[in-house]
Amino acid sequence: MRYPQGGGLTAERQEFREGLRLQAAERFAGGEASSVIAKDLRVSVRSVQRWRRT
Asked: How far is 9 from 34, CA to CA, in rounded Å?
């Protein structure tokens, strides 16, 4: 079953996740490894890799 736009998250949680993605993007520019970013932001490495590809 697919979730509607937003993945079933509240607006506040969507905003929080977007903030994490923006932090990760800044760190991509610095050349940091996905595993380091994931650990610091407390998300999965797979999420960071997906964000980097996007």
From this structure: 24
Tokens of 33: 């490894």
pTM above 0.70, yes or no: yes
DSSP element (H, E) containing 38 = helix 34-41
Residue in the structure block whose two tokens are 């929080």: 16
Angle at 29 between CA 9 and CA 24, to 5 degrees: 20
- 17-44 pLDDT per residue, tens: 999 999 999 999 999 999 999 999 999 9
State the number of CA atoms in the 13 A half-sphere of 54 facing the CB: 10
Cα separation, 24 vs 30, whole angstroms: 10
